[in-house]
Request: fold
Amino acid sequence: MSETAERIDWSSRLARRTEGQNSVIGGILALANASGVINFTGGFPDPEVFPTDSLAPIVDRLLTGDVQVALQYAPSEGIASTRDTFGELLRQREGRRPGPGELMVTSGGIDAITLLAKSLLDPADAVVVEEPSYLGAVSGFGAFGTTVRGVPMDEDGLDVDAFAAMLTAGPRPKLLYTIPEHQNPSGRTQSLARREALVRLCRQHGVLIVEDVAYRELSFDGSRLPSLWAMDPEITVQIGTFSKTIFPGVRLGWAAGPAEVIAQMAVAKQNSDQCAGALGQRMVEEFIRDGLFDAQLVRERALYRRRGEATVRSLRAHMPAGVTWTEPTGGFFTWLHVPGVDTTELALSARERDVAFVPGASFFAERVEHEYLRLSFSRISEPDIDEGLRRLALAIRG
Ligand SMILES: Cc1ncc(COP(=O)(O)O)c(C=O)c1O
Reply:
């Protein structure tokens, strides 16, 4: 470079649609391993339950006997035997096996969201999410210039009447994205009556449901309501991930839905990562085929139940009057309302006390809300949960 040439500001050349896109998730990931901080930020599984002992012999087996598949490129829709295993898992759990072309392997949950967005959304389209919602979905759908609308929720999940009013007022959104179980960030689960009403409404208006079942297997007592996909597979794409239940380092999940949508998602995958990593697909497949998945879930439910219950106990013990929270029955999260406090500012004073959480504002697609925050209790020891919430309460009291 010549000494006199001016430095080019590349930020002025970024695509117009990136304007206003921020990196909340990047911030969460950067904080993930900060030392000395009691970290309630990311929805991370606890490494304590990573199944290292059972994975070691599986990897060994694959590296000796399956190199041609496990270390090779894979079909975009996934390795046939892996799809077969996931299909069987769905049959056992949901009472329905995806038909031909109705199932593909994805590189985790966020990949499924991106593939759906690439396959279904034009800039003039609208997508509806419950508010608050997973910020990876809010920004993932918004990244394509699509309008992301929000529907409120309450203790029973998405407010179906409010959604019905939105549909009547028009225009029809391309899809509705919902997390029926132990929702990120609110921890809430959609009731059976709401599920039935939602499926009826979406069928009546011809709206595709995208149900994200990231935390479905992680109810503290092992129970689960019928999935939306099981209730009406013709209008639902179920997306799932093994990030929370096996480990996220593998980046593996699935999408099950109408064959024409899945086929287009597989095409979209060809110009993103082309295929989910074959080694990961075969590892997870063997893990499930060896019958290890259920025992893994039992360990996880017990651990996260202890953490969830400890969180609620400590919130009761430490929080000032007026602060309210959701009581989780599974998953990783509880959602706090701190009246009169801007939680983005609170995050700064909390950091001075070495405690971190995610401010609620970025979980909203439409509404402007500053008084909420998300706590993830999944990978904090019970003593640290108590100490962290004691410090957070001090920060709230100012
Ligand atoms: C609801 C929900 N969906 C999807 C994901 C992302 O899953 P993955 O890590 O497999 O991309 C997350 C992770 O936080 C999540 O909470």
